[in-house]
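Lay summary. Proteins are chains of building blocks that fold into shapes, and those shapes determine what they do. In this project we predict the shape from the chain. Here is one chain we studied, written as its sequence of building blocks.
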Amino acid sequence: MYILNNFYKALRLFVQTHAELDIDIKLPMLKQHINGHIRFYSTKNLQNLVEKLVEDLKIVERCSWSSDYLSIWLKKELWVSTVMKEILMSGCKYGSNDDHKGTVVSVSSDECNDSVTCLRIELLKEAIQNLAKINGYIIGNDGLNLLLSKKNNPNNSNLVLCGNVVCNVNVKEYKQRKQESVTKMSANRIESEEYPIDIISKLCHASIVYELLSVRHNKVINTECDTSNKDSGIFIMYNYSRLCQVWKAYENGVIENYYESLPDICSVNFGLLTSNEEWILILNHLSMYPLVIQQSVQHLMSASVDVHRLCKFLMEMSSAVSLFYHRHHILSDPIASLLPLMYARLYLVKTSIQVYENVFQLLGIEAVREM
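And here is the predicted shape, written in a compact code that computers can read:
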């Protein structure tokens, strides 16, 4: 069980036991620049629980009551080191759970042609199967049979309705249009007359996956309405690539004997990660990822799935990574006084890369480590 799940359960149980309340926990949001505390609101005065909460929940550093909400500050170093260890130990399985172990489901579609809507259905089908498996489901024919279709049928309770994609071209032309757009955007970043075709192809697919899956499955997507030059799929991959380049630069430094090898995680002082950008990335994204995985298919047995949550998660995490990258130097000179912070940030880079790649795998996206 992951630390966030354990903390949520312990906190809810504590409040239910001592105040007979069910609580809705609010995590710090990126735009609010809250200094890393968790809060929940209550019409009932909980001032008398403050001291006992700190005593009972060892991960809590302090808390305070203010008119209608309780704020909780976590022991950051303990929280961060626990999350880092969970990610590195679990690797590609980080976020997986056995909540639906042994439950059998199948996912099928009722049509296949050269429309972009059918491409959306196929991408959605793959993502649902991947999400089901990581949540403990077994993909087979002896259980719930989910049908993905753009045709609404109120009599079919197992129907996962897929909204139409408004597009005036077929799949081949749609992909060609995407490739031209991605090539044009990449031209300013690649100093070569011949662009790497494999990179362009992967970026194109990432762009398509994000565009077709970032909207809830039953909603219509209008590809003709987007006149901006922004591409969220490329933005996500660009920030992932940034982290990979930092990690590669460090590894090259180790090979050249400029840096020492990364020390054991148990000897790293994660208490040095004190900035809002670092804490938001850790708490709201690395810690939250397993919960996002759970919530994405929590109503799967009712033919409801939230693949778009993964896309939203990727976008918000990439915004957090971008802030972290721009506001903090990760690699420093190999000076003894600077190395402890560099090592802590390198572990943050390494674990962030792992979470990125886990989401990419679920969505059927191939990672691009260099852009």
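What the prediction tells us: Residues 29-34 have pLDDT under 50 and may be disordered.
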